[in-house]
Design brief:
The protein is mainly α and 97 residues long. The protein is 60% helix and 0% strand. It is built from 5 helices and no strands. The two termini are 25 Å apart.
């Protein structure tokens, strides 16, 4: 890391820092999962959908739904996320950048 930081500049981008630390991919995956879990939970709350009802609509167990809504659990398939999004009237969008 360079110690030559211009006055008025915030330094290097946070992404660059994470890459240097070797944690960029893991941190990004965790952040995405947290956002998805939060958005699904908020959409369920806004629409008055309980966990029991959501699990039935997903044709899964309540414990599976809890894993989906757990921001720390990254073992959720894309298909499950897409189905859950559809149930709450949302969609997912992926892109390679």
């Amino acid at each position: 890391m360079s110690k030559d930081i211009e006055i008025g500049k915030s330094g290097q981008l946070f992404e660059e820092f994470l890459r240097e630390q070797g944690t960029y991919e893991d941190t990004t995956e965790r952040a995405i999962k947290r956002v998805i879990a939060y958005q699904l939970a908020q959409a369920m709350k806004k629409q008055g959908i309980s966990k029991v009802v959501m699990a039935k609509r997903l044709k899964t167990s309540r414990s599976q739904l809890d894993r989906l809504l757990d921001p720390e659990n990254g073992n959720v398939t894309l298909a499950t996320i897409a189905r859950a999004a559809e149930i709450v009237g949302r969609s997912i969008r992926l892109e390679l950048v």
